[in-house]
Amino acid sequence: MNLAIVGLGAIGGSFAMSLMKKGYERIIGIDIDEQTIDYALKEQIIHEGMTSPEEGLKDADVIMLTLYPSQIAPFVEQYRSYFRQGVVLTDVTGVKTSIIKETTRVLPDHADFIFAHPMRGSEKKGIAGASADKFEGANALITPVPLNKEENILKIETMYKDAGFSTLTRVTPEKHDEQIAYVSQLMHALSVSVVNSSQASDDTLLFAGNSFQELTRIADINDSLWSELFLNNKEALLQSITSFEAELETFKQAVETDDEEALKDFLTRAREQRRNWY
Amino acid sequence: MNLAIVGLGAIGGSFAMSLMKKGYERIIGIDIDEQTIDYALKEQIIHEGMTSPEEGLKDADVIMLTLYPSQIAPFVEQYRSYFRQGVVLTDVTGVKTSIIKETTRVLPDHADFIFAHPMRGSEKKGIAGASADKFEGANALITPVPLNKEENILKIETMYKDAGFSTLTRVTPEKHDEQIAYVSQLMHALSVSVVNSSQASDDTLLFAGNSFQELTRIADINDSLWSELFLNNKEALLQSITSFEAELETFKQAVETDDEEALKDFLTRAREQRRNWY
Fold it and tell me: What is the CATH number of the domain that holds A201?
């Protein structure tokens, strides 16, 4: 199987490294940055490397696009004439419905696109943040669409297992986006809003403990990527903020009215749900 | 120096253990739970133990109250006739202005109360959660009031250093409460509201990564203690929520209006502030 990985950042590079370790025989790395390709070849992260995709795509049985959300459909449109008959494409973007809609519109009939979301972020950007064991024990979500062939979904799932993922879950794109809005995007929205509060000051850390450090960790955010992720999941994200705001309002009301019993009930409910999860 | 610690939970117990290790010669443990006293004596965490405070208080040069916020002033009122001339009291509660007001009203003239806040929470409750190195490298806040004698403030600060604290900062009670509302209470309010969201379900963890796990950790909360902490800091807490909501509203507006530039600016501002702190 010939695998082409387009975009050798922390995620694409980690797929290359872990699948190389697993014994994949032909991994073609494609990246617009020549230094990245040189580095990947030198470190034996890939078998072949190139800065223009045409030649690599022609040979590929599977094409993994580790690009920004806004780049997926334009890439498919620009390079579809180089896709082999029966090629399987896959992506790694954190939002699905909008990407699927845009990409399906430009996807040729002889290609099958399995949309997926590896659930392991990276604090380090670029190929230097890649590692062969990055995905060990990680979860991934696969969001099949009606046009997908079962054998192609299985092919991508096998590749994820080979890369180290432990749990693969198939969900609809809608459920994916709704839940990601809650468990991931809302967390980032809260974190950046906390850090941007007018109460933030140079003295803040004199008062801060673990909870502040943990909650604000993800405010150290990639603004270009996350702007795209937020805007491509607008409806679900706004709904998620609204649901959250309703709870914060309940909390505030209890504090404002000195309703200790309501406050305790609210906290007890949270504690029980948290313990139910972890 | 005779030190009486009232309440041998995780915090009181850790003070006893770390000061015992430091060589303090007389640590009297007072707790209403007989098993706790038996355990503390057996484990040599204290020199003497009792379930009624009268005798221990009579001998004490320093009395540390590791009680819930609502118990501080009533304790002082009930037992003040047992306080020695020149005794120094101190507390460990996470809110200050309201506690200081209530307590000062009932404090006898021959006692000095140095209000303090050790900045290290405990996940484990009770004496079993205590350890001799719990406070190593931790921060503490001291909130002096005009009636305090400098020598008594220094006495408490020395005791904190002996217990392992590395940074002691003196702040006004008002600034303390305002900043704690932001860096600690707001974090807890957000965390419990996230967990109580109507979007929470048994499926949630299929989608959740590190950020959800971290942000919801503190939702496993002691409802009795935190209800008191929130209600005793009502004004500052509500102000802190309002400041946060203003930022979340800015974020929402940018998403709603597809204003990618405003969104990027907001994220960039957060990233820079976060990196400035850590």
Answer: 1.10.3660.10
pLDDT digits (tens, 9 = 90+) for B214-269: 999 999 999 999 999 999 999 999 999 999 999 999 999 999 999 999 999 999 99
**What is B63-121 written as a DSSP string?**
EEE---HHHHHHHHHHHGGGPPTTEEEEE--S--HHHHHHHHHH--TTEEEE-EEE---
CB nearest A197 (choices: B182, B210, B260): B182
For chain B, percent of residues with pLDDT exceeding 70: 99
Question: Which residues are within 8 A (CB) of A126 and not within 5 positions of it... i.e. 6 or more apart?
Answer: A9, A10, A13, A36
The ipTM value here is 0.93
Report how far residue A70's alpha carbon sits from residue B249's, in angstroms, rounded to the nearest whole number. 25
User: A196 touching B, CB under 8 A?
Assistant: yes
Domain membership of residue B17 as a residue range: 2-171
Residue after which a domain boundary falls, among B154, B171, B188? B171
What is the per-residue pLDDT for B209?
Answer: 85
> For position B98, which CATH number holds?
3.40.50.720
A240 and A136 in a common domain: no
pLDDT tens profile A124-167? 789 999 999 999 999 999 999 999 999 999 999 999 999 999 99
Nearest CA in chain A to B256: A234
Task: Assess whether B150 and B234 both reside in one domain.
Answer: no
B183 and B158 in a common domain = no
Cβ contacts of A218 on chain B, cutoff 8 Å: 211
Task: Indicate whether B116 and B219 sit together in one domain.
Answer: no
How far is B12 from chain A, CA to nearest CA, in Å? 19
Tens digit of each residue's pLDDT (9 = 90 or more) over B44-77: 999 999 999 999 999 999 999 999 999 999 999 9
- The tens digit of pLDDT for each residue in B12-31 reads 999 999 999 999 999 999 99
Contact A206 B141 (CB under 8 A): yes
Q: How many domains does chain A have?
A: 2
Which residue, A138, A171, A204, sits at the end of a domain? A171
